[in-house]
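Long-time lurker. I teach an intro course on protein structure, and each term I like to show students one example going from raw sequence to a predicted 3D structure in token notation. This year I'd like something fresh instead of my usual example. Would anyone be willing to generate the tokens for the chain below so I can use it in lecture? Attribution to the forum is fine with me.
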Amino acid sequence: MRAHHWWRDAVIYQVYVRSFLDSTGDGIGDLAGVRAGLPYLKRLGVDGIWLSPFYPSPQRDHGYDVADYCDVDPLFGNLREFDQLVGAARRLGVKVLLDIVPNHCSSEHPWFQDALASAPASAARARFHFADGRGPDGSQPPNNWHAMFGGPAWTRITEVDGRPGQWYLHMFTPEQPDWNWRTPDVKAEFERVLRFWLDRGVDGFRIDVAAGLFKHPELPDSPDPEADARTRDSVNPLAWNQPEVHDVWRHWRAVCEEYTAQDGRERLLVGEVSVPTAREHAQYVRPDELHQAFFFDLLGAPWDADAFRKVISEAVQDIAGTGSTVTWVLNNHDQVRSVTRYGEPATEGSGLGAARARAAALLMLALPGAAYIYQGEELGLPEVVDLPDDVLTDPIFYRTGSRARIRDGCRVPLPWSGQASPFGFTTGIQAAKPWLPQPDWFAQYATDRALTDTRSFWHLYRDGLQLRATLPQMGEGTLQWLNTPPGVLAFTRGDGLVCAINFGTTPTATPVPKAPLLASGPCEVGELPGSTSAWWISDL
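-- Reply from a regular --
Happy to contribute to a lecture. Here you go:
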């Protein structure tokens, strides 16, 4: 029998730090706020938290432009506060994962500033992707690649002597130059960063853009240069998913195993891996590479029984076949919230989108493997779709001039209590307004209200997490699909636990008991209402 590893069936809660809870009254969430919220998260029943970047940063992309990987930005606190947070989490039995950004850094990082001040072909420039331009005067970019957030992927610099100079590569924004991982300095520096935080007691890392890091060594033109910008995804085969990246993850896994051997505490590496197929995804979670990688296909699947069954089956077959477990996710800080994505009007507290999001949540929590929950998901928060242009902060908006796929709407600070903004997110007589405005209708989603309403999203998640932790059929293992009417999915887990979901809008005859263990909506004997899921024990 395989030894149990905590991460294989863990449920991790993503904390977007600047929007979780503000302890200082400046309108921006911070590490002390996260520490204050730990009892709430423990009560919800999660196994750990993943903290979005809190490192020193100009905040051009809200911390994913890192200027110093081994410190805390004063916006969020300091290292002492971080240590207190880790200590408090450990006392509660809550794991702590950090978000690490190895594909790119901030243009204000000291190494990039050193590169700008150095000569072409210098060791300082070799840490990044600098290249001469094309054309007789070098005025054209080195290749035709476009950045994911819009515009060319290259920016030309002015050399120290004032002349137009080389170009540098940035697959997101000009303020986020890409590291050159073919340079040994970069590999050594990130090992130092890993050890710095592991020595402070963290339980692992969520790795940003884990299919990135390496580019095709010749940096050739792409046959579809605007693919990344068009899809807002890493699809340029010359810029992502290069074979050399797997050596990095083998090395990082060895570093983590070294710490585990010292004290017996397993450290986790979970990657943000966006690749075309589940089979390619599985290559990142081989036994000597990442422990887990987010499986985004479920998040991206349309509301359709056949689509859900297809992505679940492929994940279980290809990923679980490596010895890892699938890492399921329905929401994160880059995606439209599921309540809205599934059809919810943004200002309503009930409806089709909410019903579907509840059903999908119960389905996800019943699947074998691990699951990640994004803050506010447990409250049923919809996307805020009507933020005024003048408050938007997403660099996608400023790079493209378009609101398409911008991410501010899922990052609005959480409502904790009360009937008006700031809804308990920030306190104090002279407290600043939240960094993004909260709509009035957030009142109906406030945490204090959710905790007292047994029909709320919060109670559905809490009850699902409690059952998941106590039922022997849940967690790791396999699933067995059952024959169902069109538009219905049902599967068994272990010894007789059934999960079923009706993707339609009308009740469908299914053997639902009068009192299921848990249901996302009201269930009667013999039928499962539309956009509802349920768990029950059967003698099938």
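Some talking points for your students: Residues 345-349 have pLDDT under 50 and may be disordered. The first strand starts at residue 11 and ends at 15.
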